[in-house]
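B., you asked whether I could sanity-check this one before it goes into the benchmark set. Here's the sequence:
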Amino acid sequence: MADTEKELRKEIAERKRAEAELRKSEEMFKSLARVSPVGIFQADKAGTTTYVNDRWCQISGMTREQSVGTGWSNAIHPDVRERVFKGWYDSVQAKTPFKMEYRVLKPDGSIVWLFGQAEEDLDETGAVAGYVGSVTDITDRRKTDDEIREKEERLALATVNNGVGIWDWNLITQEMVWDDSMYALYHIRREDFSRTEEAWRAALHPDDLERGDREVEDTISGKKP
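And here's what the prediction gave me:
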């Protein structure tokens, strides 16, 4: 009887110690989440959100009360909501980390681009206890990417419409890279061009060979930009 009571006390003490360590770990997690520059969330194993930090609320424009449960999904832009749901489902089924870029529509009508990622949160036995993830505001990066892409499209349109070709010559590998306009100007099919200086010179008119060589030499030597 005494031994049983002793074992019981030991078990209770160990359980209390484990609970104290768990509380300490949770408090540390929430302290870090409060000062994190990215949005952080936790979900149970059914995918129901149980916690979001302040940064998540700032990014989504939703309160913590609005975000928990399944409320967070209301922040996802309607045009991509199904894609995000499918991406999450596929990751859960495959037991792989979830990673995706998607848009959030805030209550004020503004759109925020996010990079979201999440992975399994395992318990002490290795079983899935839930999920933990983060969302990073990448709106500025996406805006820059869009501006660069728009400029590239305008440049491509301008070169095609004005008969201007763009090419690049790697002096180390001696490989030439042409854009579509160059092939059109030289009346050469892409598959017929070997990307060498010899192939380019072969496409020149004989009367232009000397001038072409001179232009190349002046450019390489720095005499001409």
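One thing to flag: The radius of gyration is 30 Å. Otherwise nothing jumped out at me.
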